[in-house]
């Protein structure tokens, strides 16, 4: 059986990482049996989650996980869609993962109130004596990463506008379709759902929550995906 290594549910989300949620949704879409394990971070092949262990083969990164499942199990996550539609789905996926993600990280890690109500809880396992130091160091690394990537060099208002354009683009592409490309989910729907619930999570105070809410098609899409893939939650 495939083991998916995760952080575990947090903030009312299946996982605080949209990439972990994406990987789990791909496994759900695949129909393959799997289990989750929240104790594998120290053994992550690329030093991050998610990764899977598939009968001894470890695969890190959500996109490589998808490709592994497609190749080994002959799964076509975009079955029924043509080359243009597949290219569109890839473009949406990369917009969210390579652009919106950094706005999401800024919301959670840079804003003091959001950090304390969100990522700060991850450090509760650290000994009380060193906890403030560990929090400061890790948070500083995230801020440095955001600055190096470029998103962290912008003002809060500019970052919000960047993210809002991404959200609007997803809503426009979705239109009145049940799923991103049409009547059936494609691989990129795993990413879209993970990021929409992540950016609209009420634990974090951001105007982007309202930006998602103003798109009735996105709200309906999120509920449709939740009902289909996480019906017990």
UniProtKB/TrEMBL annotation:
SUPFAM superfamilies assigned to the protein according to its UniProt record, in alphabetical order: GST C-terminal domain-like, Thioredoxin-like
Chain ranges of the Metaxin glutathione S-transferase domain: 163-225
UniProt-listed CDD domains: GST_C_Metaxin, GST_N_Metaxin_like
Pfam family membership, one: GST_N_4
Domain of life the protein comes from: Bacteria
Domain Thioredoxin-like fold residue range list: 18-114
Name of protein: Glutathione S-transferase family protein
